[in-house]
Amino acid sequence: MKRTLVKFVNGFAVLCALALFAGWAEAVTYHVNNTDPSASDSNPGTAALPWLTIQKAANTVVAGDIVIVNPGDYNERISFTQGHSGNAENKIIFRAEPRRSVTIQGFYTLFCNYLRIEGFNITNSNPGNIEGPGILIRSHNVEVVDNYIYEIKGNAAIGGYWGKPWFNNCYIAGNKIYRCQAGIHVQGDNWVVEHNEVERLYEWSTMDPAGGWHFLDCDYSRFFGNNIIISSNHFHGAVLSEVGASHVDGFQTFTRNGEYASNVTIEGNIIEGFFNQGAMIMDEGEGTGYVNNIVIKNNIFKDGVSWGICVMKNVKDVLVANNVFFNIETVVNGHPEGIGVGIREESSGRIYNNIFYSTVTAIGTDATCTVEEDNNLFYDIYSDFPDRAPHDIWNTDPQFLNPADNDFRLLSTSPAIDSGRTVDISTDFEGTSRPQGSRYDIGAYEFAIDDYTPYPILIANLDGDNLGDIVIDFGTDYGIWARYGTGTWALLSSASPEAMASGDIDGNGKDDIVIDFGSDYGIWILGDSGLWTRVSDVDPGSIVTGDLDGDNLGDIVIDFGADYGIWARYGTGTWALLSSATPEAMASGDIDGNGKDDIVIDFGPDYGIWILGDNGLWTRVSDVDPGSIVTGDLDGDNLVDIVIDFGTDYGIWARYGTGTWALLSSATPESMASGDIDG
């Protein structure tokens, strides 16, 4: 009895171990390559002996498996059978390598939960496959990432299954969709749709001479379900001649057959070009409450022909906040039409902090709705809006940076800055925290100087008010701007420089700016009066200014490179050679306090940093090659101090006019400037 019991226990342990190891089977990476002459579905699916078809992989995979598909055209629409599903810890992944080098007919995900589809080109060129989206989602926890989906005829590029039950927890991101009947259809709870581009919708169903294709409106997106986020997508390019009689909406939901939509956030998207409604939100036929709690924030609606947002038929609790509605208008039978936001037919909502620019009617409501509206800005509105709220701003230019290029950031003088109301929106279109100032800004962007990526920066007193002004090159898109000590901004030049320096060249107490525009235009002085003076046609390496001879006229020190060396152009207009060697960086200041500026020159790792005094004498400062140099009187002793970035190894140091050194920061900067900002 004892031996028999031991045998039974040991046998049971072996069976349990086998079962356990079967459940822990190691994930496998399979390979498909239909351009490999040795490829066969009878192979083991290795890189050396790949499968011929992707469908073979779909028939084989289990949780944790990865399928790598090599470049080629695969005339397949992939489907799954029961028993081939991933789980939360072990997704099934189908990946094209390299990305977007594999063209297939699409995926139908039924029976495969926890699936990731990544990097494919997907189209329906085979008439037998036109009934269904490019990727038809009929399973939970599906990820569709970084695919190029084009010319899907008669249906959406990516879509959930229309009939219930719907499928949940899906992630759609980074896909490019082009010339499809429709874009992305969300059908289920807990979906995230972000960073996708949908371009040039196309009405394919009217192109079928036999009339056999399913007719569908050309909508960029539709959403049905609960807890949905649609964020940071770009919808654009629809052309009236290509969408025909189809209705084009950016974001659409409705209730006809038991659908619902609640707790939906639409944020940070751009929809531009031809569209009928930027967002079309209806609760039709199902009764009150099936569509509710819709938040539409930080979006750009541009160039629509009918509505920016249309809310109607019992939709409850819609928040429309911090959006831009730009050019929502058209002409029908000689009469202008176009509405920024409409909330009607027993619906309710709040409209705050939006900019309405060039629309026929800004806000449209009726007697049956419940709407709160305030802190909106209106400009170039065709029809008057008589029920303006007390904090609305009417008929005032919001001063966008460059709306033609979809840059709806605010200039520093915009009336929208600090004119909004507090709402539950913590960031703007680009993720900048709100508010930046004393109150929220109106519009999709919160004004912040950090929004702009500058190139050269310098400090100057351009207007003689003893407050330091900041001169910033924002590159070829925005040019050179001055941010005065009072906080106001002014455009100085639409051209972008290669280098800049400032100094009182004419001795009138106001700084001028010396600008190197490169080999095409040379070096110019922009005087405080706004007049331009050419200095040289030769393109320099770097420029600094200072009063080298103590005559109260700013002199310009120019590095003309190895061919010409360093020259001084004095305020009187005369020139002098200072050094035949060429520097890596230069700065100027009255190091010895004698009323004449000296020049600090970095000659690179071979020679280090030197001071060229106004008397012509050279003084070594350091053997270490710096990243950048600026000068300023840090301690107010009338001796100019040198601030040096020695890089990540040493940080930022100050070499005071007395000759002592001090560590300012162990971190290393990308650029530095100095000036008495606080006066």
Break the fold down into its secondary structure elements and pairings.
Blueprint: H1 2-23, E1 29-32, H2 54-58, E2 66-69, E3 72-73, E4 77-79, E5 92-96, E6 102-104, E7 106-108, E8 115-118, E9 121-122, E10 135-137, E11 142-145, E12 148-150, E13 156-160, E14 171-173, E15 176-178, E16 182-187, E17 192-194, E18 197-199, E19 221-231, E20 234-236, H3 240-243, E21 249-253, E22 261-267, E23 270-272, E24 277-282, E25 291-297, E26 300-302, E27 307-312, E28 316-321, E29 324-328, E30 330-332, E31 335-337, E32 339-343, E33 348-352, E34 355-359, E35 361-365, E36 370-374, E37 377-379, E38 393-394, E39 400-402, E40 407-410, E41 457-460, E42 469-473, E43 480-483, E44 489-493, E45 499-503, E46 512-516, E47 523-526, E48 532-536, E49 542-546, E50 555-559, E51 566-569, E52 575-579, E53 585-589, E54 598-602, E55 609-612, E56 618-622, E57 628-632, E58 641-645, E59 652-655, E60 661-665
Q: How many helix segments?
A: 3
Number of strands: 60
Helix content: under 10%
- Terminal residue distance: 100 Å
- Arithmetic mean pLDDT: 87
Structural class: mainly beta
Label the overall shape: globular
Beta content comes to: 35-45%
Major sheet characteristics: 18 strands, parallel
Low-confidence stretches: 1-24
Radius of gyration from the alpha-carbon trace, in angstroms: 33 Å
